[in-house]
Every structure is written in C-alpha cells, then in structure tokens.
Amino acid sequence: GESYLLPSDASLSALKHTAIAMRDVHELMEQSQARAKVLILDACHSGASLGKAASTMTSAFMQRVFNNAEGVAVLASCKQGQLSWEWREERRSVFTYYLLQAIEGKADFDNKGFVTISDVHRYVTDRIKIWTATRGIAQTPTLQYTVAGEIVLNYCGQ
Fold first, then answer.
1. Cβ distance 125 to 84 under 8 Å?
2. Nearest residue to 117 (alpha-carbon basis) of 72, 82, 150, 78
3. What does the alpha-carbon distance between residue 26 and residue 29 come to, in Å, rounded to a whole number?
4. What pLDDT digit, counting tens, does each position of 103-148 carry?
5. Are the C-beta atoms of 77 and 84 separated by less than 8 Å?
6. DSSP code string of 85-147
7. Full-model pTM
C-alpha cells in the first residue's frame, strides 16, 4: 500500500530497509524551509508561464521572479505504470539526456534569459514524444506543480 523509490541494490523482501519510502520524501519536502522545492525523478513508474519578457532582463526583474516563487514541483520521467527508457548510445536515460539540454538553455523558447520548470517540462515532453514514437514505445513525463509564481531552474543569460 506504499510507494517506494528502489535503488539498484534494493531488495523486494526488505523494502523498509533497502528502499526509500515516498512518504519519507514527501515528509522531507514538507519540512524543508525552502520556499520553492523541486523534485526530479528519473525512475520507472515515477509519475505519481511568465510569457515573453523584454530582451534585457534587469537584476531587479530576476530578483522578483525568484522572490515570488514558492511551492512544490515534482517532475517525473514517466507516468505510473510506464518505464523510464535508457538511451544506451548516450549512456544515460532519455529523460536525463533531454533534461540536461533543457536546463542548459534549450528550453528557453521565448529567449527570456532563464529556464523555468514549466519550460523544462515542455521541452523534455516534446523531445521524449518524438524519441519514443520512432521506436514504437511509450514514455510520458509528468509534472505535479503547486506553486505561486514560476520556479526558475537556470539563468541562461543573454
């Protein structure tokens, strides 16, 4: 009746001692004093906008974006019941491959100078849909997002 994150060395006969209970992860997130919390899960079965801005971001604008963000975002690599596919040629999962590209700035579709969790989700989801469609498999990233404002993951600069 509980959900667990299973590290590669987890034992199904001893989950309590070898796995990480999602209840514990949730509790840690709730106890955190951080205003904005982001949890990114790249694991099988894990699935449990600011608009266009001026081309030059002032430091005051950036500070307002940061100060207004609060809440919790959970970005998971796939829906519950799906697999999180490995990309052997890239030596990582498909999700992590596109996640890194997104955070590095490719998800800044509007050339805002920063990347938000929403931008990352859109970029990763679009790329994974294309990757899986060419292979006849399924993987759908999910985003659970309960926030005020927008959580910025990276300032890409201009």
1. no
2. 150
3. 5
4. 999 999 888 889 999 999 999 999 999 999 999 999 999 998 888 7
5. yes
6. -EEGGGTEEHHHHHHHHIIIIIT-TT--SEEEHHHHHHHHHHHHHHHHHTTT-----EEEEEE
7. 0.73
